[in-house]
Amino acid sequence: MAAVAKPQRSPRPGPRVVAVSNQKGGEGKTTTAVNLAASVAAAEHRVLLIDMDPQANASSSVGFPRGTVERGTYELLVGSASLADVIRTTELAALDVVPASSDLAGAEIELAQCESPQTMLAQALAPLRSGALADRYELVLIDCPPSLGLLTVGALVAADSVLVPMQAKYFSLEGLGALQGTIAQVRAAYNPELAIEGILFCMYDPRTNLSQQVVREVRDHFSGLVYETMIPINVRLSESPSHGKPALLYDIESRGAQAYLELAREVLARMEQRA
Question: Which CATH number characterizes residue 198's domain?
Answer without folding.
Answer: 3.40.50.300
